[in-house]
TrEMBL record:
Belongs to the cytochrome b5 family. This is Cytochrome b5 heme-binding domain-containing protein. PROSITE patterns: CYTOCHROME_B5_1, CYTOCHROME_B5_2. Residues 80-148 form the Cytochrome b5 heme-binding domain. It comes from the Eukaryota. The keyword Metal-binding applies. Residues 14-32 have a biased composition (Low complexity).
């Protein structure tokens, strides 16, 4: 259906429609209105009840063991690589190794997205998608140790 005709100054001023017609017609004819891209859909997923950000904060401060290790470890890439299952997922971000297993159901992007970095260094992907997030605060209670080079044989 074509847009309504744009009134001319002569017939618009006599009917008192000039100012409202200008606004309406300028927004209809604006090149920006037809060339703007629609907003990108959010990649957030619906989390189960009890798995929101405040629930994660409460779990972190509960005193429950989220690390899964007794002491901080020196973790070579070969050991990190073995922790790539949903029931046992570690990742390295900025040289620190985190047990992300307890965080999986709390991740706003879903478990599948977080599993992309399980068993490997996720620094690059984390930087690209979460540059504003303070990982040291978000996962501090999940710190397993530090990523180190493979030992020489």
């Amino acid at each position: 259906m074509p847009p309504p005709p744009v009134p001319t100054r002569a017939n618009a001023t006599s009917s008192g429609l000039l100012s409202s017609t200008r606004v309406a017609s300028s927004s209809l004819l604006s090149p920006l209105a037809t060339t703007q891209k629609p907003p990108k859909p959010s990649k957030k997923v619906a989390l189960a009840p009890g798995f929101g950000p405040l629930d994660w904060a409460q779990l972190k401060s509960s005193g429950e063991d989220l690390r899964g290790v007794d002491t901080l470890l020196r973790v070579p890439p070969s050991v990190l690589k073995s922790h790539n299952k949903k029931q046992d997922a570690w990742t390295a971000i900025n040289g620190k190794v985190y047990n992300i297993t307890p965080y999986l159901p709390y991740h706003p992007g879903g478990e599948k997205e977080l599993m992309r970095v399980a068993g490997r260094d996720g620094t690059k992907l984390f930087s690209l998608t979460h540059a504003w997030v303070n990982v040291d605060f978000m996962l501090d209670s999940c710190l397993v140790g530090f990523l180190v080079p493979e030992p020489s044989s």
